[in-house]
Amino acid sequence: MTSPQTALSDSTLVIIPTFNEIENLPLITKRVREATPEVHILIVDDSSPDGTGELADELSEKDDHLHVIHRKSKDGLLGAYIAGFKWGLERDYQVLCEMDADGSHAPEQLHLLLEEIDKGADLVIGSRYVEGGETVNWPASREYLSRLGNIYISMALGAGLSDMTAGYRAFRRDLLEFIDFDELSDAGYIFQVDLAFRAVKDGFDVREVPITFTEREYGESKLDGSFVKDSLFEVTKWGLEHRTEQAKDAVEDVTPVVKKLVEDTGVTKVPSRLGEATSYVGDLAGEVWKLAKHTVNDMRSGSKR
């Protein structure tokens, strides 16, 4: 189904990194063009030995909405996306999207992401784990690993997002211009978490929409088990740093309040006021804990669908 015309879709670039995707490339580009004919596509090929880059050139010669970048070496998904982001920003695209070449991200659902951008979002994540999202043809072990990993990431960082590792995304250019690409972590596939976490911390509007993630039919996955260890190590480090910053900020905020209480009411009344503050903090911690449990329950319920 063709999506309705949206305010920014005439200036949207869909970035699709490729490495040995010769079977998938014509399929994914055809689906994007049929679902959202107004958007442009950028293929970023890492010198695929199977001829994917040459096929991309042939397709682009027949379609002025399809563009190609050839990179000399395969140095990771982050590098491919950064190359695509920079190419798109230089050409004044207003929305830049990430999409896998293997069909796991349905082009027919791209309009869901773009509609939220039009409503004011700076980053929209196509989520497998919010209500309405799902995975298809994924091995149970891989799905559970992904779900548990995202639960841990959510609790460690407190970002309020259900699927921070997801790679189906739409960015408003203002957010990408704000991000320092050189600072992004390239440990495993953690740059997706890094991008989303930076956006949340810096006050950008980050939203999730439900999507259906379908396991690839052709070719081999580029994902290996090492990304889990590398990614969770990074997340744990960020979580500790973030909590330390929050604690430091809290102490700095509370200190002048305590001093003011001492000056205004006398030392003997401070314990009572501090008791009230302690009670409030305790209540707040309780609400955070309930939210965490609610998130876990939501994830468990989703896994039974």
UniProtKB/TrEMBL annotation:
E.C. number(s) listed in UniProt: 2.4.1.83
Domain Glycosyltransferase 2-like positions: 14-177
Keywords recorded for this protein, A-Z: Glycosyltransferase, Transferase
Listed name of the protein: dolichyl-phosphate beta-D-mannosyltransferase
GO cellular component: membrane
Family as reported in the entry's similarity comment: Belongs to the glycosyltransferase 2 family.
InterPro entries named among the record's database cross-references: DPM1-like, Glyco_trans_2-like, Nucleotide-diphossugar_trans
Gene3D superfamilies to which the protein is assigned, alphabetical: Spore Coat Polysaccharide Biosynthesis Protein SpsA, Chain A
An annotated GO BP: glycolipid biosynthetic process
GO MF annotation terms: dolichyl-phosphate beta-D-mannosyltransferase activity
The UniProt record lists the keyword Transferase: yes
A Pfam match: Glycos_transf_2
Catalysed reaction, written as an equation: a di-trans,poly-cis-dolichyl phosphate + GDP-alpha-D-mannose = a di-trans,poly-cis-dolichyl beta-D-mannosyl phosphate + GDP
